[in-house]
Amino acid sequence: MRSHIGQPLAREAMAYVLAGGRGSRLKELTDNRAKPAVYFGGKARIIDFALSNAINSGIRRIGVATQYKAHSLIRHMQRAWNFMRPERNESFDILPASQRISELLWYEGTADAVYQNIDIIQAHAPKYMVILAGDHVYKMDYELMLRQHVDSGADVTVGCLVVPRKEASGFGVMAVDGKDRITSFVEKPKNPPGIPGDPDKALASMGIYVFETQFLFDQLRRDAADPASKRDFGGDIIPYLVKHGKAQAHRFTDSCIRAAEEIEEYWRDVGTIDAYFEANLDLTDTVPKLDLYDREWPIWSDAVVSAPAKFVHDEDGRRGSAISSLISNDCIVSGATARRSLLFTGVKMGSYSSVNEGVILPYCNIGRHARLSRVIIDSGVRIPEGLVVGEDPELDAIRFRRTDNGICLITKPMIDRLSN
């Protein structure tokens, strides 16, 4: 699938990950952490996908712009991504909003988050910039997008998904000509433009952009001098270049990484409780839509030093077991049952308890006789003995965050209120 002509362009590129967003639609999951720092897939964080794609593509210079409640995200990156070596011309810069341009301003928008760090980027002297969103789940070879960018002579190349036109209103949407040159770029249009020859489909932006570095700097400086700009790539920079330059679409199909048994190009914005829940549970399928076991394209994350998972007790009604589930290190399933669930690092399940379709984040403790169905439990929560969730919708909605699809998010403050 991967073919390079000549020297890989990724070695001349810097990946710049925009990871400052709160992700407010994830509700209480982002009360204390930014969306890119939210746990995903049993052991990773959402940001690990963009970072792993960059490393696996051959990019060895990475910057991450953080802003909202960044401590958890920064701590994770310091632990998991500290293996870059300057003597090999590698770098990993964590770039919190630090009021470096003005003492009055944080990052005003996605473009400003790059503009404020131009001097740091210049010190690494990359020829190309790959601008990435830090909050999506997917596998992609950015080398192939870089190659298309250079071959097409574009000023900017925009990564895009083919989506049903009726579902495109939540995205930035591109109209293109027959050669995928972008002719207009509109944020969240009510009537999205179709694709030439395929009018029921639309091209939606992935929030991935490739530029030549010096050209990008020129555009950022021009935009910073415009008092009417909102300092945003999708709202300002890209529409300007569509009108005044050459903007090219790059289809995810052309650079998506799929293991042998993956049947679709998997990309998810896990920005709502329901989407987050479903994307995690996708991983429990016999043949998952997203293969985390692909050793040729690994998803790198924090290698926590911990004991193996353990299952104990083997008697009727009290048997430690897991069916169609992902069980991480340091979990103890003690006479309990997990079905179609993900137990993240350090989860403990007490005897006679059960979880059915659960996303149980690290270091939760599930008390004896608890019965939990279709739940997300935030990290560190202690579920009381005998608690039942997922069987009485009205009671669940009073006690927890319950979505219209019946997913219950449970956090420590919610559990604390039960005992008051």
From TrEMBL:
It comes from the Bacteria. It catalyses: alpha-D-glucose 1-phosphate + ATP + H(+) = ADP-alpha-D-glucose + diphosphate. Pathway: Glycan biosynthesis; glycogen biosynthesis. One of its GO terms (molecular function) is glucose-1-phosphate adenylyltransferase activity. Alpha-D-glucose 1-phosphate binds at residues 107, 172, 187-188, 205. Its EC number is 2.7.7.27. It is an enzyme of class 2 (transferase). The record marks 67, 106 as: Could play a key role in the communication between the regulatory and the substrate sites. InterPro entries: ADP-Glc_PPase, ADP_Glu_pyroP_CS, GlgC_bac, GlmU/GlgC-like_hexapep, NTP_transferase_dom, Nucleotide-diphossugar_trans, Trimer_LpxA-like_sf. Residues 307-410 form the Glucose-1-phosphate adenylyltransferase/Bifunctional protein GlmU-like C-terminal hexapeptide domain. Residues 16-285 form the Nucleotidyl transferase domain. Keywords: ATP-binding, Carbohydrate metabolism, Glycogen biosynthesis, Glycogen metabolism, Nucleotide-binding, Nucleotidyltransferase, Transferase. Involved in the biosynthesis of ADP-glucose, a building block required for the elongation reactions to produce glycogen. Catalyzes the reaction between ATP and alpha-D-glucose 1-phosphate (G1P) to produce pyrophosphate and ADP-Glc. Homotetramer. HAMAP family: GlgC. Belongs to the bacterial/plant glucose-1-phosphate adenylyltransferase family. This is Glucose-1-phosphate adenylyltransferase. It comes from Novosphingobium album (ex Liu et al. 2023).
